[in-house]
Design goal:
There is one protein chain. Strand 9 and strand 10 form a beta hairpin. It is globular, with a radius of gyration of 20 Å. Helices cover 22% and strands 44% of the residues. With 293 residues, the chain is an alpha+beta fold. The chain starts with a helix and ends with a strand. The chain has a 12-stranded antiparallel barrel with strand order 1-2-3-4-5-6-7-8-10-11-12-13. About 11% of the residues have low confidence. The chain has a single domain, classed as Porin, CATH 2.40.160.40.
Length: 293
Amino acid sequence: MTPIRVVQDIRWRFVRAFFLWTAFGITAVLAFTLPAVAFAADSTATYNSQNSTNPEDQIISEASLNRGSGWSLGLGVAISEPGYIGVSSQVTALPLIFYHHGRFFFAGASVGYVPFNGRHYSFAILAKPRINRLSASESSQLAGIQSRKWSIDGGGRLSLFGDWGRLDAGVYTDLLHRYNGMEADLGYRYPIRMPGWTLAPGVGLAWENSPLTNYYYGVSQAEVMPGRPAYSPGRATNPFVQLNLLVPMGNHWQFLGGFKYLHFARAIQNSPIVDRSNTLTVFLAMSYRFQSH
């Protein structure tokens, strides 16, 4: 490993540890303070279970009510530690669009339609990017590995919301036929709104079927080398914690921040091309809302 690679790896591990412990600390504090915050919401904060801290949730909620909206455009950067051996970090830039017309919507990097909804639930059909990827050029330890490409997932998401928080359940499949698999996730968040900023800690589970895990974490016979046996992970259930932040900056600009720590199932950890037990993603973005007419 070159000195530059060592410095980059140390720097990324420091950033990872900082965000991880910060997120855990904030989540722990909120676990003790949220009941008091909710009780005093009428005087010190306002809570909105449907229009949460996530602009995607806001757009989908508005689309379910058949309202029109103005345009919001932005740019986001996802910095992730994918868990692959010898790969310290990956950076992905994502254009963001927030807009809906009737029940059709653009929500960040997602696009979809809300066919039905109620006072405390909504169901959306959507497509969204999967930024997982891998190239042998990212690490000498991955020599001989075939490239794993990003894809677009499509499926449905059911959201239930109330004073108790927000529960999302989704099922998605590969629309580009790259990994030819599917994923199901279940997540709970408690979105709160405070003067000048909004925050939503959450926990959840992500289930991945065999074709998905085999594509991104498996080793085929053609990729076998000394010290790298063939491997097929099979199905995996990965728990995660996350933290979303939204900070309005004037009448048009807003800052979006996100943190997600996902713990790999044992089936993924045992892969010869994985050297970590978890993956960490930090998302930072700015968006601009145009005046609606």
